[in-house]
């Protein structure tokens, strides 16, 4: 029997300057982003091998997202400026999971297993461990930080400003850097439970959720499923 060739695991290489920059989005393909080596780490026994959804406490697989019908919601603040969204206007029963790639991404190693096994289309934003606030910074500074990230990920069109703060200058600079939308969130699991930025107190179709890579993600997925929702790919709608 021929021995399989050694798999190469892609490693995201970033300079110190990049880590100080903003959170441009990367759509996380559970196989491509986590690497081939990680993709082979399957549970050899139990329900997770044949039915991974059961391993994560789901009663059935998450429904596949429908063909997207995008209708982004924007906060208008002038012509030519990218919208600021925490929700997507759509009739599709989908919500969108996003997370910020910082030190918290390594708190729970099961997080990568969950993404890979359930093939979740989460969107990753790279942010520094202690993000700077954009609000009040001059245009030249904001443009340098936003555009500086673009050569590394030229396909990135979405931006999460550090700590979710922005001003009109941020939007002007983002527009000049080719950003199509600033992404905030309607709900978040950063406190360990699902909290809402507004008074809705329940997930609705089109909500953007900021998740923290901890055990709360599996519980969130169960709640999504119980409401008859599923997870869509944000980049398909914006």
Tell me the major beta sheet: 10 strands, mixed
Strand content: 5-15%
Kindly provide the name of the CATH class: Alpha Beta
Class derived from helix and strand content: alpha/beta
- The name of the CATH architecture is Alpha-Beta Barrel
CATH topology: TIM Barrel
How many domains? The number is 1
Q: What is the alpha-carbon Rg in Å?
A: 18 Å
**Helical residue percent band:** 10-25%
Described by the principal axes of the CA atoms, the overall outline is: globular
| CATH evolutionary superfamily | Glycoside hydrolase/deacetylase
Overall pLDDT level: 75
Enumerate the spans where pLDDT stays under 50 for 5 or more consecutive residues. Answer: 1-21, 34-48, 72-77
SSE sequence, one letter per element: HEHHHEEHEHEHEEEEHE
Q: What's the tally of helices?
A: 8
Give the number of DSSP strands. 10
Q: How far is it from the N-terminal to the C-terminal residue, by CA?
A: 48 Å
């Amino acid at each position: 029997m021929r021995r399989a060739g050694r798999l190469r695991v892609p490693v995201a290489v970033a300079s110190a300057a990049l880590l100080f920059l903003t959170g441009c989005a990367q759509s996380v393909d559970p196989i491509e982003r986590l690497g081939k080596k990680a993709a082979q780490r399957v549970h050899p026994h139990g329900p997770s091998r044949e039915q991974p959804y059961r391993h994560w406490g789901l009663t059935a697989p998450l429904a596949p997202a429908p063909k997207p019908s995008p209708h982004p919601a924007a906060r208008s603040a002038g012509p030519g400026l990218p919208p600021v969204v925490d929700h997507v206007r759509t009739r599709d029963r989908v919500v969108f999971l996003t997370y910020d790639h910082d030190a918290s991404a390594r708190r729970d190693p099961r997080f990568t297993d969950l993404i890979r096994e359930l093939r979740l289309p989460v969107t990753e934003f790279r942010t520094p461990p202690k993000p700077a606030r954009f609000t009040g910074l001059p245009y030249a500074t904001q443009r340098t930080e936003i555009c500086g990230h673009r050569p590394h990920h030229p396909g990135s069109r979405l931006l999460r400003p550090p700590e979710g703060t922005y001003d009109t200058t941020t939007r002007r600079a983002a527009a000049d850097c080719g950003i199509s939308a600033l992404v905030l969130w309607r709900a978040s699991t950063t406190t360990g439970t699902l909290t809402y930025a507004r008074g809705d107190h329940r997930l609705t179709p089109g909500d953007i959720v900021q998740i923290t890579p901890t055990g709360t993600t599996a519980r969130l997925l169960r709640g999504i499923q119980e409401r008859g929702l599923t997870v869509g790919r944000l980049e398909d709608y914006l």
